[in-house]
Specification:
It is a single chain. The chain has one domain: Ribonuclease Z/Hydroxyacylglutathione hydrolase-like (Metallo-beta-lactamase, Chain A). Helix 6 packs antiparallel against helix 7. The chain is built from eight helices and twelve strands. The protein has 312 residues and is an alpha/beta fold. Keywords: Signal.
Length: 312
């Protein structure tokens, strides 16, 4: 039994160490609309088990080439995205949108540029600034730490083109309309609309039935972004994590945040502490108890909501 346990440990340890050509295990791309593909990654945090891959890379095939949205969390994840993309089209990648500064969405840029060196990288201006000011190095280390070194070899390829709120990028006969904010999930966020297809890539401003980590954002900003997403009345919403779908999961997120914030505000006015609030709010939100990251992020959100109310 000891020998078996030792062998299992060695296998796990070796699996966590990435070689120079390692690729995350394959996840198939799904065509959610003609010419629009999404790889729906597993929900959760980066780990050895998921090899750092847990977001939703997507791409749009245009007349001139391919536009990628969020190629993943590491060079290893990005290579997997490149492999899956090449199964759907032989066109080159011409542009990449990075939706925000959190590294699980953009550190795969390296693999895209390795395959298509002329691709243009686009992001929120504050994302670009933060990446240069240390966020790139921070996320590379964090990914390595969380995956036991699996993502080692990843370098930060930082976007060079800044996208403004309301800006339209016309690429290969398609319009990519930008809806950006400075106070939502990460304060560096883009949502990307394909008006012709009535598709909205919400990034992490809206998640599919997952309790959001909001340590870098604000409730006010996320609620504003959620309302903006609903007002666009898209046919399909592609979240940063979870499954693509209709507006139902966007409406559910709105209910979550409105309920949590209103209950925190009510009990804050009554002089309650965060630990007194948590069981009450957990009961109010019990319909959402099976959402990923419930145990990790519910208490965090309550504490952050108190801080936000105090700042008001």
């Amino acid at each position: 039994m000891r020998i078996i346990a030792l062998l299992a440990t060695l296998v796990l340890s070796s699996a966590a160490l990435a070689g120079p050509d390692d690729v995350v295990r394959p996840y198939p791309a799904e065509q959610v609309s003609p010419g629009v593909y999404v790889i729906h990654g597993p929900q959760g945090v980066p780990s050895r088990e998921n090899q750092s891959f847990m977001n939703n890379p997507a791409w749009v095939v245009t007349d001139d080439g391919v536009v990628v949205i969020d190629p993943g969390s590491s060079v290893q994840a990005g290579r997997m995205v490149v492999e899956q993309l090449r199964k759907t089209t032989q066109k080159p990648v011409t542009h990449v949108f990075n939706t925000h500064v959190h590294g699980d969405h953009w550190l795969g840029n390296q693999a895209i540029l390795d395959a298509w060196p002329k691709a243009t990288l686009i992001a929120h201006p504050d994302m670009i600034k933060q990446a240069h000011d240390g966020a790139g190095a921070f996320w590379i280390k964090l990914m390595s730490d969380m995956t036991g070194g699996y993502t080692d070899g990843t370098r930060a390829e930082i976007p060079t083109i800044a996208a403004a709120d309301g800006q339209e990028f016309r690429i290969g006969g398609k319009i990519f309309r930008i809806h950006s904010s400075t106070d939502a999930h990460s304060k560096t966020d883009l949502m990307i609309e394909l008006p012709q297809d009535r598709i909205l890539f919400t990034a992490d401003n809206v998640l599919d039935h997952q309790v959001m980590n909001l340590r870098d954002g604000t409730f006010k900003g996320v609620l504003k972004a959620t309302d903006r997403a609903l007002a666009l009345n898209a046919r399909l919403y592609v979240p940063g994590h979870g499954r693509t779908g209709d507006r139902t999961f966007v409406e559910d997120q709105k209910v979550w945040f409105e309920t949590l914030v209103s209950e925190v505000r009510r009990m804050y006015d009554e002089g309650k502490s965060d630990y007194e609030m948590k069981p009450v709010i957990a009961e109010k939100l019990k319909a959402f108890r099976d959402w990923p990251e419930w145990d990790t992020n519910l208490g965090q959100q309550i504490s952050l909501a108190i801080l936000e109310i105090e700042q008001e």
